């Protein structure tokens, strides 16, 4: 009887410790969130600077029509649907400059709808 109680307590303490560890790890890995608006015919901002190795979440919104966000060199893309938030999670692994563009035809200025993602050390 006494032994069972001790085992129960030990298990409880371990569970609390794990919970605390999980919370700590979660805070450690928290990503910076950057908002990007896609509208005819521009991304705001159209230049995004990220730090090498820093995990970020890009959050996209559009208000007019379905847009696309595509960084071909990083093989990353998403549709941006009005009324929804589109998210891309990324951790830059290489310093450089990467062009991005809208890849859903959205009107007359679509071809000029682009920007640049810059990764610095
Ligand atoms: Cu477009």
Summed up:
With 121 residues, the chain is α/β, with parallel strands linked by helices.
Write structural notes for this entry.
- The protein is α/β, with parallel strands linked by helices and 121 residues long.
- The chain has 2 domains: 1-30; 32-120, Cupredoxins -  blue copper proteins (Immunoglobulin-like, Sandwich).
- The chain is 22% helix and 42% strand.
- The protein is built from 1 helix and 9 strands.
- It has one helix at 2-28; strands at residues 32-39, 42-44, 47-51, 56-62, 67-71, 76-80, 86-90, 96-101, 114-120.
- It has a 4-stranded mixed β-sheet with strand order 2-1-4-7, with no helix packed on it. It has a 3-stranded mixed β-sheet with strand order 3-9-8, with no helix packed on it. The protein has a two-stranded antiparallel ribbon with strand order 5-6.
- The N and C termini lie far apart (60 Å).
């Amino acid at each position: 009887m006494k032994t069972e109680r001790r085992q129960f307590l030990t298990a409880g303490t371990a569970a609390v410790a794990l919970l605390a560890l999980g919370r700590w790890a979660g805070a450690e890995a928290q990503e910076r969130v950057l908002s990007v608006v896609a509208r005819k015919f521009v991304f705001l901002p159209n230049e995004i600077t990220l730090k090498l190795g820093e995990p970020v979440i890009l959050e996209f919104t559009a208000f007019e029509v379905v847009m696309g966000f595509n960084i071909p060199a990083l093989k990353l893309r998403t549709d941006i649907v009005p009324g929804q938030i589109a998210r891309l999670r990324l951790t830059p692994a290489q310093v450089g400059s990467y062009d991005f563009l809208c890849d859903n035809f959205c009107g007359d200025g679509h071809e000029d709808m682009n920007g640049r993602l810059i990764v610095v050390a």
